[in-house]
Amino acid sequence: MRLATLFCFGVAAAVATSASAEISGDVVKLGVLNDMSSLYADLSGAGSVEAARMAIADFGGSVNGKKIELISADHQNKPDVGSAIATQWFDNDGVDAIVDVPTSSVALAVQQIARTKGKLFLISGAAASDLTGKACSPTSVHWTYDTVALANGTGGAVVKAGGDTWFFITADYAFGHALERDTARVVEANGGKVLGKVRAPLNTADFSSFLLQAQGSKAKIIGLANAGGDTINSIKQAGEFGIVEGGQKLAGLLVFITDIHSLGLQAAHGLQLTEAFYWDQNDATRAWSKRFFDKIGREPSMVQAGVYGAVTHYLNAIKATNSDDGLTVVKQMKATPINDFMTKNGKIREDGTLVRDMYLFEVKAPAESKGPWDYYKQIAVISGEDAFKLPGPNECPLVKG
Amino acid sequence: MFDWIHLSIPPAPALFAQLLVGLINGAFYALLSLGLAVIFGLLNIINFAHGAQYMLGAFCAWFLLNALGLGYWPALVLAPLIVGVVGIAIERLLLRHIYRLDPLYGLLLTFGLALIIEGIFRQQYGSSGQPYAIPPELRGARNLGFMFLPNYRAWVILTSLAVCLATWFTIERTRLGAYLRAATENPVLVQAFGINVPRMITLTYGAGVALAALAGVMAAPIYQVSPLMGSNIIIVVFAVVVIGGMGSISGAIVSGFTLGLVEGLTKVFYPEASNTVIFVIMALVLLVKPAGFFGQVR
Amino acid sequence: MAQSGRSAWIITVVLLPCALAAPFVLYPVFLMEALCFALFACAFNLLIGYVGLLSFGHAAFFGCAAYITAHTVKVWGLPPEFGILAGVGVAALLGAVFGWLGIRRQGIYFAMITLALAQMVYFVALQVPFTGGEDGIQAVPRGRLLGVFGLDNTLTMYYFVLAVFLIGFGVIVRTINSPFGQVIKAIRENEPRATSLGYHADHYKLVVFILSAGLSGLAGSLKSLVFQLASLTDVEWTMSGWVVLMTLVGGLGTVFGPVVGAFFLVAMQHYLAQLGSWVTVVQGIIFVFCVLLFRRGIVGLIASYAEPRREVPAGEKPPELAGAAARET
Fold first, then answer.
1. What domain count does chain C have?
2. pLDDT, tens digit, for every residue of B22-32?
């Protein structure tokens, strides 16, 4: 039995290596893998799938004569489920590229699989900077944002504006620690001080104790190094305890417009956060977002807008190289600058990060808002170089050489 | 793992503040576990759907506000009634058939129910949660000297105490409660006295569910109204009931408050473990005195 | 109730060719996942079906073994068979601890103790650095079995998993149908009488618990090699609930029930994956349905038709769960 297996493998290997630059399977297949039913369903979910669909339709539905197909699945924020789906997609279903994947733990697992199989991974949802650092991969592009940009954005801009003493409320898991660590570094590099921190278990419902500790520290800024439900709960309860009235400001280190929508302006106003996109920034964003809104009924998050951009750029790269081999396409993507409704003069770095401008927003007060989704006012633009500047040497083996 | 134990004790005012906050949480746990204790104590059913029913209460309040314009105060009365009726329906249609079986089947059945309810709401409303504001009368905070106590939190602790005491009184000190307790021990005999035991059981389950829904309405302004809110809290509530003694109403109340305090202290000294300390206590109690502090072994 | 040992072997022999040919027909990773969970469910069933103890903390053994195997294979570079042995050993040890702590209790109290202990294991898994927190231990190499068989080949891995499953299954069947198994059944039927005959009931129950824990660990170790990933999902309490559901659907206390239940639920999860939250609803409906109408499970139902008609009263109760009296209403 083993001999037969060996023989089959030998034949397959021979066939594989003889393949020249061409689009495999006569079809370009994209898989949108994200959270469709849980915490991040609103900021990615079905919206990301629709964004990808829009990108494919706008591209014409086919590239160099080959049809473009789209499938999607729910990874439920679990690395097991995500890696099982990714493996099946790549092995069995002929998927050429996986798109989105919020939740960094799943993204790390999927990136590993994509790297081994030489397939493309377009990251829009996940944030961990390790994806382009220690764990970087030659077939990945980290499209929309990462923790370094968030830290430089919120951390740097807030300190420069006078918020120089910080207290962190951190979700007690690897991602929360990383977010806190990156932001603390930026705060200190800009002359600020971290007065203290407290680690709350993941999925804590009641933050009153931690908020009291933050109040007691007298720090000017309370940094929320958490995500999803924890962020929402901590902001809501901060309102109850009069944190903002007491003179301290909240800085959300990972907040999306969907979280603000969920909280309401009454609870969230005054919060400062960094995002890569806001639907109401200019005519181009408004036009695209209107199309999205008409299909989904909500304004797009930066993750969903990023999916559109990533898919379009990917398809353009395939068109130019007439190949869907991972390494070839990525090389083309890195060689071409990006200019679309969301990104101006974006360039993909060697480690896979798309260096783009980020924006510091502040949440409006209820009186300032003209209606649902009119939540942000733009405070500052953080240029790409500043936003994605690494605090130390680049840990990605591709760059270190 | 141990690098953040706060070995420095915070100043006394801050500690009082933390204890008070812990007590408030404890009041909430007590209210939530009350319904569970009533249902297990009197009906011998382990109602795993309690968390989902709590979530239903919160969503009911949100729905009443957004669809019918009814605010917090009407919701406090209406939501428990509506969800209580749902509970009665569940009891009539489903639970009735498994009384003669091992209570663990009741646990499995209600676990399945919880999955169904949660799944439907998640499908419909996503997981981010819906906003629900604190009613205007309860906004703001009072300066107690050592901390600013939000008025709403003070309301929570007072209401929980009142409801807990009222429930305890009803069950332990009134004739209705006596009938209920008798029916638990010997339903045939009680039925022979002319009391409609099945109906009493149905109403009791409905009352337990209504208590869960009441807790949900009270939670809506401070936690997000989200389909996941039930499953996040259900095993903590279980631990509270087990520690207090699975049949005992007073046990649930006392252990609810106590565990809130313990959790509050843990959040000061070793915050990462604040979710787990309750299970440590639960394991210890089960090993040493499985009936819990106030209960009897069944 | 349980099929005799002989019919179990006969059925296994009949199914074996299907099992050998299956990876050519169905997706092998799906089959391997189903086999791992089938082994897990069989191990769990040993405890609930034959001793009558419902444990809500079996995920602790499953997940612990997964982490240990992943760590030894990835970080220490040991070959997979040593990784698996390490995983099973630790799981059995943990089982000894849980069992020693919990065995004196019964019914709901036993379930709650196991739940509490498993939650503590979850907390440790979350905090301790080597588990990788919510990232888990990723990129676990499959290595070479006995230095000869490269397990990166999916087909080879499948046959390895199948072989290990059969060994584990064989251990379970052998245990049930041995004199030891007879004593266990006696204890479940009438513990005071068994004790009066000189059998230390607690010791026997503890041995079965450790066996169940060790085999659950075996399933967990296999799973970490199949998916090349060990994560927090493996130690969560929802995983414990999952194995209860598999055993319930398949048939508590039957030999093949857990296998059928595992395959059924893993298949359902795969094919309904695109339905999102509806999967949870369907799972809930299955739970409710099984408890109300279907307590014997799939295999129990088949067995009741297949076995020659013995006097079975209409409202026959399923295997009694220990420590609880049936209530008359």
1. 1
2. 998 899 899 99
